[in-house]
Amino acid sequence: MMTSHKQINRFFLLVTGPFLGLLIAMLISGTSLHVQQKPVPFTVSTDIPATAAAISGQLDQAKEAAQTTISSIKKTAELYNKTTSTMSKIVQSSQKAAKQPETIYNNKITSKLGSPYKTVESDRIRLELFTVNPGTYHGYAMKIKLKSPEAMRMTLGKDKLGSSETTLAAAKRYGAVAGINAGGFADSKKGRFPLSTTVLDGKYLGGFEPSYKDLFFVGLNKSGKLIGGQFSSQEELDRLHPEFGASFVPVLLKNGQKKQIPDKWKTSPLRAPRTVIGNYKDDQLLIIVVDGYNENGGSGATLEEIQTRLYKLGVQDAYNLDGGGSSSLVVNGKIVNQPSDGQLRPVPTHFLFFK
């Protein structure tokens, strides 16, 4: 039996035999075996100095172009800054020029009222307080510029229809800087209710009532402009977009002209404390509150006196609000006028002003 290592030797001999024979034959015949390798070409450029010079020139050109661009940007920036500064000055001059007519008109108004003894101003309102004392009566004028519609609103007494409170209480409760009494009212067993058409927050309280007799509606629209007059239909008033307002009697001025005061209101009463509200051409408001019924000889003003006063002051539209014991003027948490009842009367509606 053949051993395993002999089997292996025989196998390798059989496998390598042909190659060994071929190798021996080549040696006998003198044949040589050559392995040819393909050379790799390698070229050294002789133009390196010229190329470097060209690149250097291009870099110089790029540097010069960059410097030119930077200089141009700086000049452009300087020109922009100068232009912006010039435009800013032009805008400021234009704004100043645009305000000149307003300033001139305001100065004209103020010159007729005198010097204010109290001024309140904020981003939303400018309020100036004057004394009114032509000799026949004594009162106060409050000129107001509403810089925002939110600077004025109407409130109900204790925020409830049929309830009432003093203007001072309403102003303190809402944090108002000033306030006056608003429309008339009617008392009943169920409470003290606003007279006729009343609008609060754009909604009619108790519905719309067409104007009758000498009644009117007065308030502010959604843009903060004074609106008022007599209205035969709700659609007619809706076209003015009322935000709030109340009713009383009578209208004193319309479009800068005196309105006929009904005989009834000329003498009933003849003289009394008054609260009136009006506006100027520039939409500033003017409120006059007159004292009366006191022991110092002042018995108030007639409607004709107030009407003439407003006309001379250049007021465009003016409306007589509730007067007598209802007349109220509060500023900065204090009562300004002298209430004829000795104290402020609780009323159902108030016009309040806010800083």
UniProtKB/TrEMBL annotation:
Keywords linked to the UniProt accession: Membrane, Transmembrane, Transmembrane helix
Q: Which residues form the Phosphodiester glycosidase domain?
A: 174-354
Q: Which InterPro entries match?
A: NAGPA
An example Pfam family from this entry, by short name, is: NAGPA
Q: Does the keyword Transcription apply?
A: no
List all membrane-crossing ranges: 12-35
The superkingdom listed in its UniProt entry is: Bacteria
Q: Does the keyword Transmembrane apply?
A: yes
Instruction: Indicate what this protein is called per its UniProt record.
Output: Phosphodiester glycosidase domain-containing protein
Species per Swiss-Prot/TrEMBL record: Paenibacillus motobuensis
